From TrEMBL:
Protein name from the UniProt record: Adenylyltransferase and sulfurtransferase
Protein keywords: Molybdenum cofactor biosynthesis, Nucleotidyltransferase, Transferase
Native organism taxonomy: Eukaryota, Metazoa, Spiralia, Lophotrochozoa, Platyhelminthes
GO molecular function per UniProt: nucleotidyltransferase activity; thiosulfate-cyanide sulfurtransferase activity; URM1 activating enzyme activity
InterPro entries: Rhodanese-like_dom (IPR001763), Rhodanese-like_dom_sf (IPR036873), ThiF/MoeB/HesA (IPR045886), ThiF_NAD_FAD-bd (IPR000594), Ubiquitin-activating_enz (IPR035985)
Keyword Transferase set for record: yes
Superkingdom: Eukaryota
Annotated Gene Ontology cellular component terms: cytoplasm
Spans traversing the lipid bilayer: none
CDD domains to which the protein is assigned, alphabetical: ThiF_MoeB_HesA_family (cd00757)
GO aspect biological process, one term: protein urmylation
Listed PANTHER family: ADENYLYLTRANSFERASE AND SULFURTRANSFERASE MOCS3 (PTHR10953:SF102), UBIQUITIN-ACTIVATING ENZYME E1 (PTHR10953)
Native source organism of the sequence: Paragonimus heterotremus
Length: 350
């Protein structure tokens, strides 16, 4: 390994697996500071959420595109102390920082986001940002200097300029780091981050499931007046404002139990649908946490042990060592508008 050749005293542990919602929390739990050098939104949301439910842990985030780079520290400016971990004490507000979801609660449309592979990157920019990230890690671990949390450093190599932007404070209503957040390691496991960020074939995948009879649960979040105009079937219909009620969660759980009883597929996709895809994106993480809480209150097992290893909605293994989530929450990016544009031109547009 090249890093070992550079410094043989460094302790380097390799993980020869793809980072996925099924393993992110268990991997991240073993470290004090996390450095995000990823190049796609789904991974950024996944790492952010895993860090939030595992501590929170300081998340040193860097990005580079074309001639520009950015760097900040999300969630916390120091690791939790041993005493804070043992007593389950929250991190003091003076040590808190906004998380990635505080700034971007809902991902932008997938077709508006470009990575290095699409837009390119000036080779020295990742090197500069990576060096700055390394400096932040050293400062966090040693307590030397001011950690760059709550601020975003922007490097413009085209004009050789740097500037710092002050970020907003942590959102009180953030779904993963807010005071009332219900996010948990299990809710991270049950979230399909690729579908949450809007995959290119989000509507096509649902169409395939409907055509082949692949087990899934489709939930339409539109108000009744819109459902009467047009609908997909078979489908459950729960207006957005009623989705988190116990009576509705009970109906969703009953539908899930029926699918699990008659199918060996794990996990069962629970697909949220709305007019344009905005409400369903927000509801995805809310439903995951609410359904887990409902199951706990009713003594239902959220992560049953299974003997087989199945494939989840995106084709990635959603379980390891026999432990698998039995449902995953996803949504149709673009909603029924995308369905009409991409799948069924005869479907009513309103």
């Amino acid at each position: 390994m090249r890093c070992k050749q550079i410094n043989s005293t460094t302790n380097i542990e390799e993980f020869n697996v793809h980072l996925h919602s099924s393993n992110a929390v268990s991997i991240i739990n073993g470290f004090d500071v996390i450095v995000d050098c990823s190049d796609n939104l789904a991974t950024r949301y996944l790492i952010n959420d895993a860090c939030a439910v595992s501590g929170p842990k300081p998340l040193v985030s860097g990005s580079a595109l074309r001639l520009e780079g950015q760097m900040t520290v999300y969630l916390a400016n120091r690791p939790l102390t041993k005493e804070e971990i043992e007593t389950n004490s929250p991190l003091p507000m003076e040590n808190r920082a906004p998380c990635f979801r505080c700034l971007f609660p809902v991902p932008p449309p997938a077709d508006t986001v470009q990575g290095c592979s699409e837009a390119g990157v000036f080779g020295v920019v990742p090197g500069m940002i990576g060096t700055m990230q390394a400096a932040e890690v050293i400062k966090i671990l040693t307590g030397i200097g001011a950690v760059h949390s709550g601020r975003l450093l922007i490097v413009d190599m085209e004009r050789n300029l740097t500037r710092t932007v002050v970020l907003r404070s942590p959102r009180p209503d953030c779904t993963v780091c807010g005071a009332m957040a219900q996010a948990s390691p299990q809710s991270v496991t049950l979230t399909d981050y690729v579908l949450f960020c809007g995959t290119p074939d989000h509507d096509k995948q649902l169409h395939d499931w409907m055509q082949t009879g692949e087990p899934h649960i489709l939930i339409d979040l539109r108000p009744q007046v819109e459902i009467e105009l047009c609908r997909l079937t078979p489908c459950l219909y729960f207006p957005m404002k009623t989705l988190l009620r116990d009576s509705v969660l009970g109906e969703i759980q009953a539908a899930l139990d029926d699918k699990l009883k008659h199918s060996t597929k794990r996990p069962i996709p629970i697909v949220l649908l709305c007019h344009r895809g905005n409400k369903s994106q927000v509801a995805a993480t809310q439903l995951a946490s609410a359904l887990l809480a409902f199951r706990h209150r009713n003594s239902l097992t959220a992560l049953p042990t299974t003997d087989s290893v199945d494939v989840d909605a995106t084709g990635d293994n959603n379980g390891e060592d026999g432990q698998q989530a039995n449902f995953v929450i996803c949504d149709v990016a673009g909603g029924l508008s995308a369905w009409a544009a991409e799948i069924d031109p005869r479907f009513p547009v309103y």
